[in-house]
Amino acid sequence: MKIIVLGSGAGGGFPQWNCDCAQCGGLRRGSLRGSTRTQSSIAVSGNGRDWVLFNASPDLGHQLRQTPALHPRPHDGARRHSPIRAVVLMDAQIDHVTGLLSLREGPPLSLYCTPSVFEDLTTGLPILPVLEHYCGVHWHVVPVAGESGEAMFEIPDCPTLRFRAVAINGKAPPYSPARRDPVVGSNIAVLVEDAATGERLFYAPGLAEVGDAEREWMSGASCVLVDGTFWREDEMPAAGLGAKLAAEMGHLPQSGDGGMIAALREVQAQRKVLIHINNSNPILDEDSAQRHELARHGIEVAHDGMEIEL
Ligand code: MLT
Ligand code: MN
Ligand code: ZN
Q1: Separation of CA 285 and ligand 3 centre (Å)
Q2: pLDDT tens-digit profile of 35-91?
Q3: Which residues does the UniProt record annotate as the domain Metallo-beta-lactamase (predicted)?
Q4: Residues 155, 163 contacting (CB under 8 angstroms)
Q5: Which fold has domain 2-72+80-309?
Q6: Cα 174 to ligand 1 centre (Å)
Q7: Which end of the chain, N or C, is less packed with Cβ atoms under 10 Å?
Q8: What is the distance between the alpha carbons of residues 78 and 259, in angstroms, rounded to a whole number?
């Protein structure tokens, strides 16, 4: 299985357009050693030809231009083509779904998402009805809803990959009626298994907590690619960037007793990689103590264009 990190940043990317914090400003001025990051999304393939996108960020157009594996390879005299076979959505957040609009010039979109994400994308943020006026959307239900917290699904164009979705705690988007009271299916994590090799990827760019279920799913994976949004719980207020705590945004910070570093210590995966990193997070500074601390724990930080082969 091949994985390409199209974007490794959280909402806003890095540096964020309107931010002159120590990190965003430092990167612009060249005083911080780090790299620019677009908003998070990955592409996964079992055969190197047919690809599935996990989330479609508003930076998708740029990300596709930067990624030769996802360039068109038309055949039989055609001029247009895309190796993107399907898009799987982990939630209905703006930074994860608005890139769908950038795929409107192609054939009908093959979209995999839960009923609650579908609901948000047809009401509060009606991207899917809008797309009916362009390419159209074929919705494939990922049946994580109500009593059903787990589901398997297949993507016919990628027959060597198997997909398992699991409901995770998180937040529905600010515009969603479910914001205050997320429902089962507002946020999922996905385990992708390569049927040929048995290798597994656990993907969860938004993860509010690591409970027994999450730990078990991660332990069965060869690679975990998980929420790296914040280093500390009060990172935004402490940097004067906003009032919200990490928990209020549905993200588990890396530091602290119950943080992601502690959680990953019990996970056996060969590769532990953080993604969806907010511009406020000191791990974006390659010379920071926090970045060194991650390295000591064998935890990597995803970057745009990173390729992982399992
Ligand atoms: C989040 O995950 O909370 C976001 O990155 C917020 C956003 O997209 O603005
Ligand atoms: Mn986000
Ligand atoms: Zn900033």
Answers
A1: 12
A2: 999 999 999 999 999 999 999 999 999 999 999 999 999 999 999 999 999 999 999
A3: 51-277
A4: yes
A5: Metallo-beta-lactamase; Chain A (3.60.15)
A6: 9
A7: C
A8: 51
